[in-house]
Amino acid sequence: MKSSTLVLWAVPLIFFSSVLFTDFIPSIFGSYADQRLLLSISLVVLTASGLVWLSLMGALTVAFKQLWPFLLLFLSFLLAALKYSPQPFHAVEPVFYALFFLTFGLLGGILRQAAIVRESAQTVVVIAVVSCFFYGAMTITVYLFAITDDFSHLDEIIPWGFVNIRYWSHVATWVLPLFPLGILLMPWKDNRLWQLGVTLTAAIWWWIIFLSSARGSMIGLAFGCLLAWVFFGRAALPWMRLFVRFAVYGLVAWLLLSVLIPSLVFEGLQVRGIKSSSSGRMPLWQEAWGMSLQHFPFGMGPQAWLTHGILTESYRISPKFGHPHNMYLMWAAEYGWISVAGLVMLGGYGLKRLLRRASAFRKSQDAEGLWLVAYTASVIAALVHAGASAVFIAPGSMLIGLVLLTVFWALISPERASPYSIASRRVYSKATCCVLVVVFVAGGSLWIGDVLKYRQATADDLEYYQNELSLRHLPRFWFHGNFPRHPSQMP
User: Rounded to an integer, what distance in angstroms lies between the CA atom of residue 34 and that of residue 24?
Assistant: First the structure.
């Protein structure tokens, strides 16, 4: 097996397994923290590996030209780390976000240059479908145990394996648009057993969406489907038909498993309703907006949402969470509008590439273009979902998102001959390439060390914050208490 093929299978498989089957994996610091640490280490290792590959190809200069939006976004996050450097562990979170974006941009370009985009897209779909199939099968087992044990609150045990029900929903937002590809483009798409497995998997995952009333997922997926239609037109119809059909199957499964059977088994029917209100988000958003204007355009610094003096009265009397339930407003509040501007520039750059690819697909009507339709819908759905919540920053979502964003960026990247033609290469000396890689690995290692120290510090402080101050913030970086160190807790 080629080393590239091994990596293509190993990385997504490890990521999906660590997210969906964490209950079966030995834990070091707890599943949430283990996933965060896995992602942090992976960002350093994958980026360093990408730099080595580019160095061997003599393509560093042209690669950085292609990555300029990522580099600007990288710098915007680092500005917050530098501006608020006196704070303990000030660099942990901003470097984490900066590396996340840089990594998928770098790796996506490399997949395109290595001419393995289609193989990558197919591998991810196979791993996603198979992983979700086994997760769904075990979910049905959990459901049957609940029914036989006369336990009617199904939404309290399904979905399983996640510390918060909403962390699962963002993973579902990422993967649901990929399921139609399992029937449309797989080599064994005509196999009846495979078709049945993909259909049942999609139906079960949609059923859990309805069971858990994951309205953020519903809204995100609706937008993803709509914009896929806008971008690709009739060329997207084969994907859209299956996507809608799977949603209908999920609704039928919900009526059967969550309404009909429980109504026959239990005396009182327990169905989780879909809320029509903002669920207390407006005071949080107003507070985050006010924070973003305090030190415009640089924000109030990493973790400021947890430590700043309250600005609005509505937030003062509202429940407190570890984030304002909006990823973009959270970044504007802590890292400033300069980081949001960087995101907008990156989005515009990606949109320009996407529209070019979509135009070519509409003209050719090539079935292979359906890869881009599905991955586009997935990315749009996840980003829209992040605007109504901050579940994007949960480690499970970011692990899955890193894989899908990498393939998406590869799908919209220029063809191989354009950026890395022989004439455009600038060959660096081996010494220069080695210095670059060594500097990055050294800096990444120092950051990983800081991440581990931060985990230990927040673990040490947990009793103080939860018992003495009675704070119950939901987690952000670490599940056991994502709190900056209190002065009284300093060594």
Answer: 13
What tens digit of pLDDT does each residue of 184-215 get? 999 888 899 999 999 999 999 999 999 998 98
> Cβ–Cβ contacts within 10 Å for residue 286, how many?
18
Between CA 150 and CA 448 the distance in angstroms is: 47
Q: Is the dihedral of CA 116, 122, 125, 127 positive or negative?
A: negative
Closest CA to 172 of 185, 158, 183: 158
Helices then strands, each counted (H, E), the chain: 20, 0
Can you tell me whether residue 258 is helix, strand or coil? helix
CA nearest to 375, candidates 412, 415, 343: 412
CA angle 256, 262, 265 (to 5 degrees): 130
- What is the tens place of the pLDDT at every residue in 6-51? 888 999 999 999 999 999 999 999 899 999 999 999 999 999 999 9
Q: Is 52 helix (H, G, I), strand (E, B) or coil?
A: helix
Which residue type does 404 have? Answer: L
- Spell out the residues 6+ positions from residue 290 whose beta carbon is closer than 8 angstroms to its own: 311, 312
Amino acid at 150: D
- CB within 8 A of 475, min separation 6: which ones? 32, 163, 322, 481, 482
DSSP type of residue 260 = I
In this structure, are residues 437 and 51 in contact, taking their beta carbons and an 8 Å threshold? yes
Residue with tokens 């990055």: 440
Tracing tokens 């498993």 back to the chain, one arrives at 257
Contact 424, 60 (CB under 8 A): no
**Higher-pLDDT residue of 473, 54:** 54
* Cα–Cα distance measured from residue 381 to residue 170, given in angstroms and rounded to the nearest whole number: 9
Q: Tokens representing 323? A: 């984030």
Structure tokens at 87: 């704070």
**What crossing angle do the helices spanning 192-211 and 117-148 adopt, rounded to 10°?**
60
Nearest-angstrom CA–CA distance, 129 and 190: 16
The whole-model pTM stands at: 0.93
Structure tokens at 130: 């198979």
